[in-house]
Design a protein that fits this description.
By secondary structure, this protein is mainly α. The protein folds into two domains: about 15-210, H-NOX domain, CATH 3.90.1520; about 240-340, Orthogonal Bundle (Arc Repressor Mutant, subunit A), CATH 1.10.10.60. It is built from 16 helices and five strands. It has helices at about 15-25, 30-35, 55-70, 75-80, 90-95, 100-110, 145-165, 185-190, 220-240, 240-255, 260-265, 270-280, 285-305, 310-315, 320-330, 335-340; strands spanning about 120-125, 130, 175, 195, 205. It has a five-stranded mixed β-sheet with strand order 1-2-5-3-4. A hairpin with a 3-residue loop joins strand 1 (about 120-125) and strand 2 (about 130). The longest helix is centred in the middle third of the chain and has 23 residues, at about 145-165. It is globular, with a radius of gyration of 21 Å.
């Protein structure tokens, strides 16, 4: 499963990540005003319940940290401090899920609610579960910024899994696509596992045995209710921002009709090339949006109507029910019957 993202400049995230980074830097003697320089965020806004920030603003504070801090442990300390309780609905959805397998799946599904700076993919194999981080979401990051974000993100993942499981649950190993830095000894200290550099890609590997474990706060009713809230939050973001929001709105005007990108671009009074470029800048694609619309329609039809799976498949443009079931499983991890129950 692969996560998707909101716009870089869209202010839709509480400033908890920025606050954690500013706190760590303050402990190093760096004034919060200096940490926040150029971000457009005031010190007194860091803990305000009404203030929302963007991924771009967080990246600015990360760049300030790299320029001001002399401690290579800074991103690791931030990741260790970012407990799930700070993540609002996203955090509670993960803590109340019914198995660690659900935790991995939902971590990707709702990742865009968590000030995302990296692309995340989760893959389950017979003997292992793997988080992969193919690239940075920040446009054209420097090598140094990309490494800073990886260090923070990896430590954050280890912290989150421990929060959910209720006990230490370290990875089997951690792999990094770059050369070992001079402070490479910090990696196993914070991640709790062997770390390997100059690897093909950045990934965190867990033993698949843990996937059946039940989180310490697992609760069926709470999990269902909170996940529905997260779905609504993601839906609101999709239909209200940028070129991707405009495409969603065009596709939802006549549910079940799926015009080509050329037709949608014409409706939006631009060329298909311009639309493709704008969607790529927002971290998505026309195909991904069509899939999201079909998924939303599929779950709505299954939950609120008595239409047969064959009829729903036909409405959504699938050649047969089997292809629809496979797509639904890929999108949601569930079959048609799971929604109707």
């Amino acid at each position: 499963m692969l996560s998707r993202y909101p716009l870089l400049n869209e202010r839709i995230h509480a400033p908890y990540k920025i606050a954690a980074l500013v706190e760590v830097l303050a402990e190093e003697g760096i004034p919060p005003v200096a940490s926040l320089k150029g971000s457009g965020i005031d010190v007194d806004e860091l803990y305000s319940a009404s203030v929302l920030t963007s991924v771009r603003q967080y990246a600015t504070v990360c760049k300030n940290a790299m320029a001001l801090s002399r401690d290579p442990a800074t991103p690791f300390k931030v990741g260790s401090r970012l407990h799930l309780a700070a993540y609002g609905m996203y955090g509670y959805a993960l803590m109340s899920c019914l198995s660690l397998r659900d935790y991995f799946r939902l971590g990707v599904k709702y990742h865009q609610l968590a000030t995302p700076t990296l692309t995340i993919v989760w893959t389950e194999y017979p003997d292992r579960a793997v988080w992969t981080f193919p690239d940075a979401f920040i446009s054209s990051p420097s090598r140094e910024l990309g490494q800073f974000l990886i260090e923070q993100q990896f430590t954050q993942h280890v912290t989150h899994l421990q929060d959910v499981a209720g006990h230490s649950c370290p990875p089997v190993k951690a792999c990094f696509s770059y050369a070992a830095p001079s402070y490479a000894g910090l990696y196993p200290k914070f991640l709790g596992c062997p770390c390997y550099f100059d690897q093909e890609q950045c990934e965190l590997v867990y033993d698949s045995v843990i996937l059946e474990q039940e989180p310490q706060l697992a609760h069926r009713h709470s999990a269902a209710m909170i996940q529905e809230m997260c779905d609504r939050l993601i839906g609101q973001a999709k239909t209200s921002t940028g070129a991707s929001g405009e495409v969603y709105q065009v596709l939802m005007r006549k549910p079940g009709e799926f015009p080509s990108m050329e037709v949608v671009a014409e409706v939006l009074k631009m060329t298909s090339r311009t639309l493709r470029r704008r969607l790529e800048a927002e971290g998505t694609s026309f195909v991904a949006i069509v899939d999201d619309v079909r998924c939303s329609l599929a779950t709505e039809y299954l939950r609120t109507t008595k239409m047969s799976t064959e009829d729903i498949a036909m409405l959504l443009g699938f050649s047969d029910a089997a292809n629809f079931r496979r797509a639904l499983k890929r999108w949601t991890g569930k079959g048609p019957g799971d929604f109707r129950h």
